[in-house]
């Protein structure tokens, strides 16, 4: 059993992840988040908001998850959002054709369906399920199609990404930010891709959660005002050149920008910000790197693009975040299809005298000639050169129809004018986070199996008073920290742990349960996530909370009734301290959110 199987076994048993539609046999590519999983996921999302909304100041918007067809025609998804599909002619199982040939050639993702078909046949690649032969590969569009409205309705699609809503709302966003570049917007929500053969748990889903930020910047100035915050931060980079050698390297963000490894400061800052976020939510820094897209995989419109990748036990390096400079491609694409100019007017520091070519269509003549299409004809005339406008008969094309315009219907000339600014189509810097993949990465990197006896020896732990008193009270089998050979523990960051504190009465008796419940009220008033557990021996309860990653357990015992103190146990070290009930909520809040040293929070108890 590898780590992936162990993590999923725990996830299902403890209420992190369940197969969707399990009652009806399930369906690949869909998972339910259980009580603990949903909480862990929401805490990851909330931490993301703290980074991008609170710290960076990019406001959040929410757009429909269904989009009309025109949006996805402009974005290119209707015409080009597909994967090569290959079906077994025997068992009819479908597979990604490029995945089938990965073991026999490199850069399989760059091949066309026809080329993949040829490779599959030449290498006699057979179906992994039944050994049957494959048919020809073909392109399969990954968008879910739907109809908006009754009857035939209007063609629509479930969105394959959250980004397009922010591009479509660009004009509104620009006005909201008073047309001052740079500005940005974020969105967290569901996206949908009809994956051909999702077989990797939550790493490849048909319905998944994205957290995306679109930062609109002036293309003439890609310096970041807060660059020094991360300038000297060292990152593990896997650049294009490094991939030729197969060796990642460490470099500061400043060095990477100055040497051209990373295209510019804004991109470098956002790569470092991604690193900061991922390590905070619990991704192991030793299993994190940033890989630059190779030339043959980088989008034709992108200046530079990097993926945050994490190392996993079963799947190797997996992309969880993409950070790209998408230039002005998206805004220009939507401007073209919507026939609406999308730009920001940027004022100069000082007005300039500019000589420019000006075209002045005569609407008095164009109107009677072309009626409802007169404005479109006039706009087309404005795009022509002086040479084209000098002809006796000028031809323009509007909506696929050609029109002939007489030279007397348009004037043109060069003129020198004073201008105070210019219209600029911003470039877009896009950090795009796959929340489900990050969720799995946090789970796998937190998973640990420890030898308890060895841990006890390392931490110099002693037997606890709780277990001794429990035995004296006739509770039955007692469990000290050293009695079990192994413990399963999830080392979740306090920033995202789904349960932050467990409150445990030593025995299921009213005189201990009542003060325990009073403590819970205090902790919840501090907005801490608290679990009450009085089932089983204290040792077993510790183990249950270790398994779900609870950072601290508070045990109420008979000494609590005498001196008003409780035991606080640290998950990772298994050490315990005694601390007063009075002010316990502040102590735990400081331990969780302020990084307070555990030993300073009370009197050492078992070490």
List keywords for this structure.
607 residues, alpha+beta, Herpes Virus-1, Rossmann fold, 33% helix, globular
3D shape: globular
* Radius of gyration, whole Å: 31 Å
Strand segment tally: 29
In whole angstroms, how far apart are the ends? 35 Å
Structural class: alpha+beta
For the record, the CATH architecture of the domain at 498-602 stands as: 3-Layer(aba) Sandwich
Model description:
- The protein has 607 residues and is an alpha+beta fold.
- Among the domains are: 81-140, Herpes Virus-1; 352-380, no CATH class; 498-602, Anticodon-binding domain (Rossmann fold), CATH 3.40.50.
- Helices cover 33% and strands 29% of the residues.
- The protein is built from 22 helices and 29 strands.
- It has a 9-stranded mixed β-sheet, sandwiched between helices. A 6-stranded mixed β-sheet has the order 25-24-26-27-28-29, with helices on both faces. A 3-stranded antiparallel β-sheet has the order 4-9-8.
- Strand 15 (304-312) and strand 16 form a beta hairpin.
- Helix 3 packs across helix 12 (329-338) and helix 13 packs across helix 14 (374-381).
- The protein is globular.
